[in-house]
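Materials and Methods. Structural model of Deoxyribose-phosphate aldolase. The 337-residue sequence of Deoxyribose-phosphate aldolase from Hartmannibacter diazotrophicus was retrieved and submitted for structure prediction as follows.
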Amino acid sequence: MADPARATGLAFPETAPKGHNALPRNPGMALDEAWVRSVRFNHSAGERRVATLPGRRTVKKDAQAAWLLKAVTCIDLTTLSGDDTPERVKRLCAKAKSPVRHDILEALGMAGRPITTGAVCVYHRFVATAVEALAGSGIPVAAVSTGFPAGLVPHDVKLKEIEASVRDGAAEIDIVITREHVLTGNWQALYDEMRDFRAACGEAHVKAILATGDLKTLRNVVKASLVCMMAGADFIKTSTGKEGVNATLLVTLAMLRAIRAYHEQTGVMVGYKPAGGISSAKDILNYQFLMREELGRRWLEPDLFRVGASSLLADIERQLEHHVTGRYSAHHRHPVG
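The predicted structure was written out as tokens:
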């Protein structure tokens, strides 16, 4: 079978990645409250935009395989359960290093390419375990922090948790904002909080989790996105995965429009991470299509696009196996870890 990447122009590494964060950090800017207050979002137009996406965009055969392989490289393979153990985390890290079975990659003509996931995401308790398990792979460890998922612990405790995860080797920190600041329109407080988180991260990249399902309106989502980027967030992320409503295409559209506006204003490229509820290959393709249409091809790379998921990887592997064999296998034959 021909290399599917050649049919699409999607790039895959020839050698092992040296880390997935290739872009300069977002330095942030002074809080511009006038810009924030001026934000508008046309809800009905946004709904029409995302409703027509699946019907307008589709990929088949080798092209679909290439898009799905690219999606694999953007997954933050995640375990955030109360019953996590070191052994579970080690199994997850092994899957991150070899996310697609070798026989499937060989059939796709991709056996020589070092396909890995974008990161492994864990609680602070397991950062050191994951760092050790991933040593030499180039795969960063991401730690959820700042009182995840509710973010309702004291501010100084949040900063200490970030610093502890960085000391243990986390290269990325997924923080949760204080939703109260958004719901009360206290943009200065949100900005100051995010600046403190950014400073505590040091060289580690910071992803700001907005918990969009708690923010009530899409206008609030766009405003919170802008303020977090102004304060130096390297990524903005939809959800913890623990809210009643997590990632959706509509909230994604709102956040991508904020990223585009920030880039036009500052020249800085900020990444995007949907999380929660994305479990099928069909789902992730729609997110990729929207990313490309709204922001461009460059935003399909793992230094600008991540997806927080675990079960998604199993379905992608099933789809890739179907592509090369013509048969669907049972979901349990594709364990995540």
